[in-house]
Amino acid sequence: MTSSYNPGRVAGLLYLLLGFSVVRPIYIAGKLIVRDDASATAHNIASHEFLFRVGIVSDLLAGLSCLVVALALYRLFKGVGQELAVYMVILGGLIPAVLDTVNVLNDIAALLLARGDGFLSALAQPQRDALVLLFLRIHEHGFLVNEVFAGLWLFPFGVLVFRSVFLPRLIGMGLILNGCAYLAISFTGLLIPNYVDRVSKIASPFFVGEGAIILWLLIKGAQPPRPSLA
To answer: Domain for residue 224, yes or no?
Structure first.
């Protein structure tokens, strides 16, 4: 390993890959999904099949990116607390990767129904359209479930940053608050969805925690101290 190698900067660069996670819910959904209009949504998906498939691939890449980022951070923090680092990989890497992969199946089902392939001719068009919207709604709830783990993994991550001697403790506290914000939004969406927009507006300022760690790693990097020789 060369002296110029900085594992923190590598982790920061990989962290940017998590941007794949916003392509499907923000851009693709905004272009194709018409809320409470099954017919229009199914027509949009069938007419813009490639764009919808881009959303499917972006979800898969988002899941893979979660795993890659968590493993890079594990390498950075395992000397601070290996048990917490393992929890971070499980909550922020392994489980989200599985959930994203499973959730993609809902979009694939919606695409097949929207295409109306021959074997689906037993279903009337309104039935197929309704099922398209059903699978898309399941995808939305899958995204909320995934947000639970997007919040939970920030707790061991934040504690590791706080305990480390090579990153500011304030960022660690910010990550924990960021995790609380994710949990507040996701559980509101699952329990009382009518209030999720209101809670999102209140909680969104706390997302600065992840922004701060990304900027710090990209600009300054992080180099854990080498273990002292006995």
So the answer is: no
Going from the C-alpha of 169 to that of each of 6, 54, 159, the distances in angstroms are: 20, 39, 9
DSSP state of 166: S
Percent of the chain with pLDDT over 90: 80
Containing structural domain, residue 61: 7-219
The count of other CB atoms within 10 Å of the CB of residue 159 is 20
**Do the domain assignments include residue 143?**
yes
Tell me if 45 sits within 8 A of 52, measured CB to CB: yes
**Rounded Cα gap, residues 129 and 121, in angstroms:** 13
Write out pLDDT tens, residues 153-173.
Answer: 999 999 999 999 899 999 999
Q: What's the number of domains the chain is made of?
A: 1
SS (H, E, C) 9-68: HHHHHHHHHHHHHHHHHHHHHHHHCCCCCHHHHHHHHHHCHHHHHHHHHHHHHHHHHHHH
Residue 2 located in a structural domain: no
Which of 84, 130, 126, 93 has its CA nearest to residue 109?
130
Amino acid at 77: F
pTM, full prediction: 0.88
Q: With respect to residue 103, please indicate whether it lies within any of the assigned structural domains.
A: yes
175's CB contacts (< 8 A; 6+ apart) are 154, 157, 158, 161, 209, 210, 213
